[in-house]
Amino acid sequence: MSDFTAFFAAGRDALLSGRATHDRPMVEGAARWGATTILRPAGTVLDRLVELAQQAGAVAGPGHWAHGADCLHVTLRSLEPYRAVIPEDDPLRRAYADALREAAAGLPPVRVVLRGVSPHAGGVLACGHPADDTLVTLQKRFAHGLAARGLRDFERGRVRDRWYVSLVHFAEPVPVTTAEAIVAWCDERADLQIGVAELAAAEIVQAVRTGTGVRLDTLERVPLRWAPARAPEPR
Asked: Which one, of 35, 64, 68, 36, lies nearest residue 51 by Cα?
């Protein structure tokens, strides 16, 4: 289970000491919001996350990105700098998709226990705890597939070991009084039982600014499902 204790404490400290950060509009070549591989929750867990995002957004106030169902996700891996247009026949897009299909082959849906809400310097998130080793297996296989194709390691060797769903990204400076309210709201929900997310597909997505937030458009989608057992060859 991922341990968010130190992360939670660092997030509280960043906000209460006036060190909140905020996202800026996407520009070509920026390091954030480029093509990314994600897993999306669905069903009642997604409804609960949308509700929490709306509540956190109300506490944060206007101007911030309180995410809706079209943006809530668990990030598997960031792939490249931001591009406004990623053509369907783009060689990198094809290579990402091939590596992802290879990584997902034979794996069941990923199950993540969502419990607890945490502040951090750039927003508010729901804490995720993988129910088994499927997520890490997918992560390792995908990294291997990308490397085997000679693709750039955009994450520079980083190995994700903390999983979460971002509820709100700050998109404006956060006054200290607002930061205090956000921290108090998170403190009350530090061990909130949100539910178990079954993530039935991995997707390569492109971020699109909507004017009031962000949505993630699917470029490629790869289902996660058990491969049927092969019958033995007749003798």
From this structure: 68
What's the whole-number mean pLDDT along residues 37-41? 98
Measuring CA to CA, which residue among 199, 206, 231, 232 is closest to residue 104? 199
Angle (deg, nearest 10), helices 91-104 and 134-148: 140
Mean pLDDT of the chain: 94
Distance CA 77, CA 99 (A): 12
pLDDT at 157 over 90: no
Q: Which residue, 144, 118, 120, 138, is CA-closest to 200?
A: 138
Quick one: DSSP state of residue 132?
S
List the beta strands (DSSP E) in the chain: 36-39, 65-66, 74-78, 110-120, 123-130, 163-169, 193-199, 201-209, 214-223
Residues in the chain: 235
Could you read off the pLDDT of 75-125 as tens digits, one per residue?
Answer: 999 999 999 999 999 999 999 999 999 999 999 999 999 999 999 999 999
Instruction: Quote the pLDDT of residue 229.
Output: 46
Mean pLDDT of 175-180: 96
Which of 127, 149, 123, 115 is CA-nearest to residue 57?
A: 123
- Tell me the pTM: 0.93
Indicate the angle between helix axes 43-60 and 176-188, nearest 10 degrees. Answer: 150
Alpha carbon distance 193, 185 (integer Å): 15
Quick one: tokens of 38?
A: 């994600």
CA distances (Å), origin 168, targets 33, 107, 173, 227: 14, 30, 13, 36
